Amino acid sequence: MLDLRRLRLLRELSERGTIAAVADALQYTPSAVSQQLAILERETGVKLLERAGRGVRLTDAALVLVVHAEALLERAALAEAELAAASGTVAGRGRIAGFQSVLVHVALPAVQALAASAPVLHCELVEAEPEDALPALALGDLDVVLGDEWSHAPWALSDALVREPLLHDPVRLVGASRFDELADAVWVSGHPGMTWEEVTRRICREHGAFEPVIRHRAEDATLALELVARGLAVTLLPELALRGAPDGLESAPVPGAERVIYATTRAADATRPSTVALLAALRSAARP
Questions:
Q1: Cα(88)–Cα(276) distance, rounded to whole angstroms?
Q2: pLDDT digits (tens, 9 = 90+) for 50-75
Q3: Closest Cα to residue 38, out of 82, 15, 6, 75?
Q4: What distance in Å separates the CA atoms of residue 98 and residue 85, rounded to the nearest whole number?
Q5: How far apart are CA 237 and CA 148, in angstroms?
Q6: Which of 128, 120, 58 is nearest to 93 (CA)?
Q7: In angstroms, rounded to a whole number, what is the distance separating the alpha carbons of residues 198 and 41?
Q8: 84 pLDDT tier (thresholds 50, 70, 90)
Q9: Cα–Cα dist 107/113, whole Å
Q10: Which of 23, 54, 154, 202 is the least crowded, having the fewest Cβ atoms under 10 Å away?
């Protein structure tokens, strides 16, 4: 009989790449992970791991087993969710990941509401971008991922994940009202490769026919808004990021430019009371 806990360790190793990473994610010691995988080898009667430099890699037999492990673990997760739904109790741990503004303005009010309506559900907030959070969600490290999607850069989701739109978030030009005098302006945007930077360049080309002079780089809106407030830059930001911005900032809408904020969960958790409660609270908090 194959042990689901050991199968999960093998699946985690195939995803995370090293025994140390598996141990860190699941709060085991590396030696305990190695020991359990050795037991799994004895149970299956085939070699599952082989040395690769200072680490290990999965054998062909292990890769075959991982495919079956995925299916078995998915069925187990579905069974757990349906049992939880049958009990009707909103309990356990709810882990929500997202970027700064959506955590502050959507997730935090939702968690505050749940503290009153579901006091035995222990919520956790994790600041993370979708690129990092979605794989963690698929592995079971998170319960809900809040992320933004632009029409030109859709997410790639596995079949194990489902998502729903929470709100449409229009983009505004901040620090100016028109593009036609901004060809030589100093801009603040995200780091190279970030969607924020890509969107800034694309919108400036479409609405101003110029390439923006991006001098300042930021991880989120906090620094950008300070630069704009001091007259040192202009920027493009969604309305959600402008909540709580300094008073008196000049801004203007950008026609046709918006992002959609989505909540993504595991398909197997569709009936789990904690997930249902998390999504309901997030929907309520996202309403205008």
A1: 11
A2: 887 777 888 888 788 778 877 777 77
A3: 6
A4: 26
A5: 13
A6: 120
A7: 47
A8: low
A9: 10
A10: 54
Helix (H, G, I), strand (E, B) or coil at 229: helix
**Domain 90-165+261-286 classification at class level:** alpha beta
Q: Please tell me whether residue 217 adopts helix, strand or coil conformation.
A: strand
Tell me the CATH architecture of domain 4-85.
Answer: Orthogonal Bundle (1.10)
**pLDDT tens string 232-276:** 999 999 999 998 788 889 999 999 899 999 999 998 898 888 999
pLDDT at 213 exceeding the cut of 90 = yes
Give the CA distances from residue 277 to residues 20, 21, 62, 114, 285, in Å, rounded to whole numbers and listed in that order. Answer: 34, 31, 37, 8, 12
Give the list of residues 6+ apart from residue 1 with CB closer than 8 angstroms, or none. 43
Is residue 40 scored above 90 in pLDDT?
no
- Of 168, 208, 159, give the one whose Cα is nearest residue 187: 208
